[in-house]
Inverse folding.
């Protein structure tokens, strides 16, 4: 049994080495004359193809008073073109055996479908059509506004963790657009007009502001002409406005309390931290795993199992973003536990990470977790395409190639150094959710 485990470990390391050095090489990049970038990765393990179109626009590109505009436009993109009826897009994809959806984030808006190799041309034509010809019909504008308002109620206002995250972000960021919720503030959603959507669509939905990612069972020689036939006739758009906002350096802890109907109290600690443009991103990734990456991690073992103070605890570091976001620690408290007690416990454990080197075993375990997750993501063509797209929007898909090497080079001293540098109370926003029995009016 011990020998079998040893062989498995050797095979995993070999797979990691091969994957880390060859992943980016498997992607082929093409750029059309109108500026549309196309990233293709053939993967013939399963007989399907994922097509994704990534627009370089999200909540980050909105202005004050117009929050939620990118997300609203995502909804309206399903309301038809002169050749495709309202909601017909989804029915066409489903009728041909495919699955489709879309999402909006701070940095991008993405539309995607997974279909068979023989049918993927249908998705290509549909996406090309709505890039150039979306109607954004007046008939559907007000009804869809109500749908989005209800979505906000369900996913944010009636979700204590999401509500706390939203208010903490609004406090943590003073000038950067990341302070606004992607779904939009309720009053902003109410005040958006169809003309707002039309202007936003014209400004950002252009081939030179988009990236197509295709992964799966296809031949590049066959699929590239299909993409060109659908998209190269769409004219290049005007350059998108540059968002050049640098968040002010935080010079002291900020605190926010949210009183809301909820079963349990919650705590959120948000620290400003760099993104993947900094070489510290590798050590910060590993620090998040050391603190709360699984049941044997420091925070989970201590707060959930040993002291039974919290129902769950998590550490999350966002590196793949256009602008720096942050490192957060969140916990849902058990009944009767005071937030101040959990805050003190977490702070005490952070002091230890800053003062003492973690063990070599902890470091290697965290590296194994990250590397295994990175490798096993290639089992899904959708997961591969998502990773390529996220990296491309954040700074370039080729940065994936150096990720595993960067993780392997992190030392115990690197972990301690980034903990000291970034998990500093002076750059922290601490949010506390206090449960109430009645809904706030």
């Amino acid at each position: 049994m011990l020998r079998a485990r040893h062989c498995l470990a050797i095979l995993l390391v070999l797979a990691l080495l091969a994957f880390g050095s060859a992943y980016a090489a498997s992607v082929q990049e093409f750029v059309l004359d109108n500026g549309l970038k196309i990233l293709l990765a053939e993967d013939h393990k399963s007989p399907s193809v994922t097509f994704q179109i990534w627009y370089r626009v999200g909540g980050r590109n909105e202005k004050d008073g117009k929050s939620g505009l990118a997300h609203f436009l995502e909804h309206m993109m399903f309301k038809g073109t002169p050749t495709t009826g309202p909601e017909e897009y989804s029915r066409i994809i489903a009728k041909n055996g495919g699955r489709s959806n879309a999402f909006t984030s701070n940095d991008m808006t993405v539309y995607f479908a997974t279909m068979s190799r023989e049918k993927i041309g249908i998705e290509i034509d549909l996406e090309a059509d709505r890039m150039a010809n979306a109607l954004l019909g007046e008939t559907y504008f007000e009804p869809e506004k109500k749908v989005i308002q209800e979505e906000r109620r369900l996913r944010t206002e009636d979700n204590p963790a999401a509500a706390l995250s939203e208010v903490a972000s609004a406090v943590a960021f003073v000038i950067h657009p990341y302070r606004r919720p992607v779904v939009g503030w309720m009053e902003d959603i109410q005040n958006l007009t169809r003309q707002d959507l039309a202007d936003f669509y014209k400004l950002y939905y252009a081939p030179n502001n988009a990236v197509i990612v295709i992964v799966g069972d296809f031949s590049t020689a066959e699929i590239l002409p299909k993409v060109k036939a659908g998209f190269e006739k769409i004219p290049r758009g005007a350059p998108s406005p540059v968002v050049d906002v640098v968040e002010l350096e935080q010079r002291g802890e900020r605190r926010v309390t949210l009183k809301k109907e909820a079963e349990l109290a919650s705590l959120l600690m948000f620290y400003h931290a760099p993104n993947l443009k900094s070489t510290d991103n590798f050590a910060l990734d590993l620090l998040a795993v050391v603190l709360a990456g699984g049941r044997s991690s420091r925070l989970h073992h201590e707060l959930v199992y040993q002291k039974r103070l919290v129902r769950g605890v998590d550490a999350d570091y966002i590196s793949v973003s256009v602008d720096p976001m942050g490192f957060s620690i969140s916990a849902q408290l058990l009944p009767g536990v005071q937030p101040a007690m959990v805050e003190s416990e977490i702070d005490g454990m952070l002091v230890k990470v800053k003062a003492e080197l973690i063990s070599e075993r902890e470091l290697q375990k965290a590296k194994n977790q990250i590397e295994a997750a990175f490798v096993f993501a290639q089992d899904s063509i959708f997961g591969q395409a998502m990773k390529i797209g996220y990296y491309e929007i954040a700074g370039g898909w080729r940065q994936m190639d150096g990720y595993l090497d960067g993780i392997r080079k992190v030392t115990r001293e690197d972990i301690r150094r980034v903990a000291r540098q970034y998990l500093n109370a002076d750059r922290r926003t601490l949010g506390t959710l206090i449960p109430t029995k009645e809904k706030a009016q």
Remarks:
- The domain at 26-231 is CATH 3.30.830.10 (Cytochrome Bc1 Complex; Chain A, domain 1).
- The first strand starts at residue 28 and ends at 31.
- The two ends are 62 Å apart (CA to CA).
- The chain has two domains: 26-231, 254-436.
